[in-house]
Amino acid sequence: MTNITDLGIAAIRDGVAKGEFTAAEVATAFNAAVEAAQPALNAFIVTTPEKALEAAAKVDADRAAGKPLGKMAGVPIGMKDLFATKGTQTTAASKILKGFKPEYESTVSQKLWDAGAGMLGKLNLDQFAMGSSNETSAFGNVISPWRRKVEGGPNDTAPLAPGGSSGGSSAAVAARMAPAATGTDTGGSIRQPAAFTGISGIKPTYGRCSRWGVVAFASSLDQAGAMAHDVTDCAIMLEAMAGFDPKDSTSLNMPVPEWTAGLNADMRGKRVGIPREYRLDGMDPDVAKSWDDGIAWLKDAGAEIVEISLPHTKYALPTYYIIAPAEASSNLARYDGVRYGLRDLPDGAGLQDMYAATRAAGFGPEVKRRIMIGTYVLSAGFYDAYYTQAQKVRTLIARDFTNAFMDVDVILVPTAPSSAFALGEKSADPLEMYLNDVFSVPASLAGMPAMSVPAGVDRNGLPLGLQVIGKAFDEQGVLNASLALEQRAQFSARPEKWW
Ligand code: GLN
Fold first, then answer.
1. For position 153, what pLDDT does the model report?
2. Nearest atom (ligand 1) to Cα of 218
3. Annotated catalytic residue within 109, 144, 165, 210
4. By residue range, what is the domain housing residue 11?
5. Ligand 1 contact, 188 CB (< 6 A)
6. pLDDT tens per residue across span 238-279
């Protein structure tokens, strides 16, 4: 029999339902995998083996009693440490929330537990989800399970970034510490780490998954989603996570479609847009080739390929890096030493001093940088020049997509401009790091669903992702095109186990 830890969501759920193994056996196997890999990869901030076992025992008891089983019954998952979990430390990877144990459960995590999933632990991430490499966590870097292969020489053992901000999620799934994990995506944080680690990840339409109980970064962009082995597993998990929530005022009041039942890789009659503005000068040749492969695969699946224009693409990155920090500076004002986590109260200090000391000690450098940028662009003298202007450009970017989708069903682009980079390679220069988000932020600004699927490996044997962007509410179209890619990419590369 294959190892239980090699199985994904569908295989585990079906195996448990058929009695091929118990949910307890599954939880035990993944708990062991977490324990074995955690020292090397640091994918988790806290592990909760007892929670995984507790959920499994309930599923096994329900099955024995002949009760109906949920969509995720018997599947232990990793939970990004941005989701509030009742009684379990929730930190957003920041010192300012160290020790914070919420009194409530986020809607998305509750839905997953209700569907029969169990929690292996809280996954590491970039601090407050700000970053593309997981190097801004206050709990240490996550190390990607992948390493560069060097043709004809000894392999490169330099630790690589698992992507960010959902780097604990991507590393845990790629290293088979968890069959699936939650992620959140504000400007690419599900898609880029999925691409860096050879797994699949979907960010649904803005509003599909409730933001209630998710630590806020940039509220008009934040969206939860699924990270798993393949398209089918992502569809199953997203069905369990999505749904209207009156506690989130931007939640979509629409029924959740049966995406899994609707999966269909036949692209005949579908039009796929290839935006010319994404062909950057000096594009990595391996990334360009994988994009061409994707185009050929969708053609092979029956789609018609159409060149399109998204003329405001070049403004997406600067627009994002104004809007996201602006919202962050406002959202993060709540961490003041009064209500949550850390309090730094120097001797004889007054209230203002406490705020300042707490925030100085609690926030990491990238978070401080964003708060300062955000405060600056929202300040009286610069508001119109930066923030209002960025909002206008955001509208133009969204309009580009609306126009394009009058002509095409989905858009195909690379997920990221490169494969995984080494830790430390980009962290000294924030702009260099921000540039890694160039292909992922446009769909975020427009609120469109988008998915990354593994497409192949580059010259160093590292995974590359292809991104499918769809119309608002058309996760089905995104999943279907992604499935067509998956079937043709036949991606089977796995990191060599060194941990
Ligand atoms: N890398 C982007 C940023 O640093 C996106 C982060 C995210 O999607 N949470 O803001």
1. 77
2. 9
3. 165
4. 1-499
5. yes
6. 999 999 999 999 999 999 999 999 999 999 999 999 999 999
> Residue 154: what pLDDT?
77
Three-state SS annotation for the chain:
CCCHHHCCHHHHHHHHHHCCCCHHHHHHHHHHHHHHHHHHHCCEEEECHHHHHHHHHHHHHHHHCCCCCCCCCCCEEEEECCECECCECCCCCCHHHCCCCCCCCCHHHHHHHHCCCEEEEEECCCHHHCCCCCCCCCCCCCCCCCCCCCCCCCCCCCCECCCCCCHHHHHHHHCCCCCEEEEEECCCCCHHHHHHHCCEEEECCCCCCCCCCECCCCCCCCEEEEEECCHHHHHHHHHHHCCCCCCCCCCCCCCCCCCCCCCCCCCCCCEEEEEHHHCCCCCCHHHHHHHHHHHHHHHHCCCEEEEECCCCHHHHHHHHHHHHHHHHHHHHHHCCCCCCCCCCCCCCCCHHHHHHHHHHHHCCHHHHHHHHHHHHHHCCCCHHHHHHHHHHHHHHHHHHHHHHCCCCCEEEEECCCCCCCECCCCCCCHHHHHHCCCCCHHHHHHCCCEEEEEEEECCCCCEEEEEEEECCCCHHHHHHHHHHHHHHHCCCCCCCCCC
Cβ of 82 closer than 6 Å to ligand 1, yes or no, is no
Q: What is the tens place of the pLDDT at every residue in 197-206?
A: 999 999 999 9
Q: Is 317 in the pocket of ligand 1 (CB under 6 A)?
A: no
Average pLDDT over every residue of 347-367: 94
Verify whether residue 189 is a known catalytic residue.
yes
Please tell me the predicted confidence (pLDDT) of residue 347: 86
Read off the pLDDT of residues 322-339 as tens digits, 9 standing for 90 and up.
Answer: 999 999 999 999 999 998
For residue 286, what is the domain's CATH number? Answer: 3.90.1300.10
Mean pLDDT of the chain: 97
Dump pLDDT digits (tens) for 77-102: 999 999 999 999 999 999 999 999 99
The tokens describing 245, both together, are 């929530």
Check residue 463 and give its pLDDT.
98
Ligand 1 nearest atom to the CA of residue 164, by list position: 1
The pLDDT confidence band at residue 1, using thresholds 50, 70 and 90, is: low
pLDDT at position 234, please?
99
Nearest residue (CA) to ligand 1, atom 4: 131
Cα dist from 97 to 91, 108, 131, 242, 335, whole Å: 5, 20, 18, 27, 8
How much distance in Å is there from the Cα of 317 to the middle of ligand 1? 11
CA of residue 155 to ligand 1 center, whole Å: 30
Tell whether the model's pLDDT for residue 426 goes beyond 80.
yes
Closest C-alpha among 209, 165, 155 to residue 191? 165
- Ligand 1 contact via 134 beta carbon (within 6 Å): no
For the chain, the domain total comes to 1
